[in-house]
Amino acid sequence: MRKPALYSSSRGVGAAGGPTPPPAMGSEPVGSEADAQAMVAAPSFLARMGRSPKAMWAALVVLSALLAVSVLWRPVPAANALTQKDIDAAVLRTLTTQALPSVTARAAEKIRPSVVRVAGLAKNKKGEEVETSVGTGVVIVDKGVILTNLHVVSGARIIRLTFDDGTESDATITGVQAERDLAVLQADVVPDDLHAATLRTSSDLLPGETVVAVGFPFGIGPSVSSGVVSGLGRAFKSPEGEQEIDNLIQFDAAANPGNSGGPLVTLNGEVVGIVTGILNPTSHRTFVGIGFAVPIEGAASAAGMPPF
What we know:
Blueprint lengths: L32 H19 L1 H20 L11 H14 L5 H9 L3 E9 L5 E13 L3 E5 H4 L4 E5 L5 E10 L4 E6 L22 E6 L7 E14 L8 E7 L11 E3 L5 E8 L12 E5 H7 L6
Antiparallel strand pairs: 1-2, 1-4, 2-3, 3-6, 4-5, 5-6, 7-8, 7-10, 8-9, 9-12, 10-11, 11-12
Helix pairs in contact: 1-2
């Protein structure tokens, strides 16, 4: 820290002797007639103050003000450099005072750029394109490779994709794994900044682990729901299906028609399964608390991706 300059109160010759510095420009020499007059005037001024109470009080006010200034004024020290302890304290203060997104919201935000709306279209008698089915897909390769359910696109004359940035593209089926109700799509038009999802093995999933489902239930979305893994190694056969699918992840995050083909992700936003169906004890096709997803290991193999 730079120290303030120190000034001596002595103006003349010190006790040890020595030359007297020259007078400042514009001032009278020491011992001049002006000094003599000042010495004569000082007693006269003090005498007048003694005779005038107003003058005495004014002098006291001035002296008090000068004393207060001398007491209160202190040199401002330079700011200390930040330490790691200071930084940690600031981060902790922010975490405890600022509202942060929930873990499920962060998981949904991470997977969102990779979620695709998948629609099957056909032309009506007037030649107009109409949706005949709607579901969800997830980008697994940033060149436009998408996983979805086979039942979402089966029989569709046209497959229409809508990406997160609003880009629309037709797609073609490049691979099928009917025993797992899976289809691999290739988009005709690929957005410039397409994000592929991060895939994670489901082998270490445990019942009770929180999972998030993102998709287009009834075509609305992307919609987010969360729940837990409620079972592993389950078997399921949809009412319209002819083949039972086994080794499924059972979960209780809300899913409805349109969620089919969408990702089931962990709190880190990593895909562990592809939503493939919901339990329907009635004919209403609404969620009753049990959904099923194909583990991502089997789903990725449909696209020719190596196993974990």
